[in-house]
Predict the structure of RNA polymerase sigma factor (Sigma-70 family).
Amino acid sequence: MNTSQTAPLLISRVREKDLEMVMEWFLQRKQSFYALGRIYVSKQEDIEDIFYRSIISIHNELHRFKKDTSFESWAISHFIHSARDLSKDKSFRDSESQKSDQTLCHAFHQLEDQEKEATALTYFNECSFEEVGRILEVSVEKVKSCVFSGIRKLREELGYGSFEGCPEYHKHYLDYLGRTMDRPEKVEFEMHIYHCQCCQEDLASFQEVVLTLAGMTEALEVPAGLIERVKSKVEEREARRQRKKKKRKSIWLSIAGVFAMVVSIGFVTGGFSSLYYAWTEEDEQLRAILQHDLGERLNLEAESNGVKITIRSVVADDVQTLVFYEIEDTEKDNRYMMNAHEGVHIENEYDVMRRDVQYMFYSPPVNQDEMQNEEKNVYKGTISLLPVSVDSGTIKMNVARLMQIVQDPKKDGGYRGEMTFAEGDWSFDIPFTKQSSRVHKLDKEIDIDGIQVRLDKLTVAPTTTLLQYSFQNQGNDKRIDVITFDALQTDNKKVEADLFGSNMYVESFDQEGWSAFTSSFDTLYFDHPKEVNIQFDSIHLSVDDRKTIELDAAKDMPQTFEYLGNNITIDEIKVGNPAKVILTHDVSKDRAYERVNYGFSSDHLRNENISMGVSDTDGVLMDKTGKVHKIDAYEYDQIDQPRYFETIQTIEFYNDSSREDVTPTKLEIEGYSTTKYVDDRVKVKLD
């Protein structure tokens, strides 16, 4: 697939500028998507409608996008769904395009749905057979079969005639033309073609159609102003929504959202004495590294605007590059820390660091009390950078901004206040030598709550211990979103899981439906264990359990219905644009669900051209006994099996096609999310 950006980078940019970036993404790919749209409809306004519906659908569903999915495949799926819906009630008539374009598009329309979609995705959108299979939810063999039969039918429709060739060699056509055949098969195939006149003619005409398809994306002329008209329509819709509603708050109501809030608290305040336990032993970690000759004291200094930074040491391995530093405010009692994503730039990153690594470790604040640092103007910490790509060299690091840590969060407003920064110019040339790591293949498959989980490998590096694991979700009504681990246990040591180094997706490892992630622990590098006991902590699940709630604004309120044994009360239904439905969920420690997953892109909403969203949501943080805790009460790590339950929701419905009011008639629940704590333990031998 031809992509100009990786999915993580694209998603971050899309979320920054919202609809603008979604439209920009389509603008960059207008040729291929225009060609794809032409296989469904012929009229220009219909293709514009497909673009418009797709952009709105993708924007509304961004919160559901998961990193284990290619963004381009995900977006294509939305485009195809919109095109299918629109083409149901549209007859295909030749447009006013060039005659050659009319002929090929009309020929496509004679194919079966899977044939035309598989063929178009392969040659218009340059998807691999594996990617086409994931988009259409069919096997690779089925994709190849559809593409082969599609090309043969197109050949007849385009007037190339009918050729047969030898049936036993048909299966090689696509791989041979795609240059993916193994050499022995390729030699045998070419020898046969050389001696068989029928196959020569069959393959030649087949190749002619393939070349025509491959060039069609560029050959098709996108009508002038098409994307601009779509953009104008989207912007008009957004402006209409802004006029009719107040600013909406987006709240992530899952346990992962609670984690994010906890991270925000700790990031600004430096609180949570025990939450950052693995990071508070910095001196001990550095001592071990120095004692084993894995690093050296550097004490590189730079001062700017009254703030001095000292690079104490660095250790580089296959997992990360860990820099130990100290920051001193020479003029005031302020503590500052580095943030790898805010004001830190590696000038020679492309020369000395691995750019193929999808994850980057978060460096949380180090508790200065545990560091026995009583100086209010000094901060000692670490910053994690990408792993290095060469055995030795120099990292050219420039720091332009430091983030201030609030030393008295209750007095100074804690995480609710605005972040404060120190600006300056600090530059360092940091020498490094890459240290080796021990990689142990595990290949152990286990069952966790009925879902297959595979422990792939354990990387023991000087800076951390990294567990790579996989799980399968395809075709299941119950899917794992997140796995958390408790610890790794050896004969004489227990290392805790790093809350901030877990659930990092390994994109290149996705094979045959298995999605791979990594989770990090304190290092076992200096212990050389022969076996390790892996202790699980929890799994966060998404479960399909559909229920449709009929809504009637004319009835007296409140109205109550039951979902999974729990009462949900409809407090109010407001007709308007947007329309609003206000719900209250009963809550108890035994409630099956934590968050309800609604059908934001159901057929009902699409057919009515209505979009929906959730705002003004509230919830409670509860331990396993049912005790409710304050979310901002710096004790999250002390709560026994915390779960966050949604309690109040305002669901809004928007008319995307006109200014007319919306009267909600139904609420479709797709399923729910929940956290299940587990005590599974798996013992693995290390080779």
Q: What stands out?
A: The domain at 1-97+224-244 is CATH 1.10.1740.10 (Rna Polymerase Sigma Factor; Chain: A). DSSP finds 19 helices and 25 strands in the chain. The longest strand covers residues 531-550. The first helix runs from residue 7 to 17.
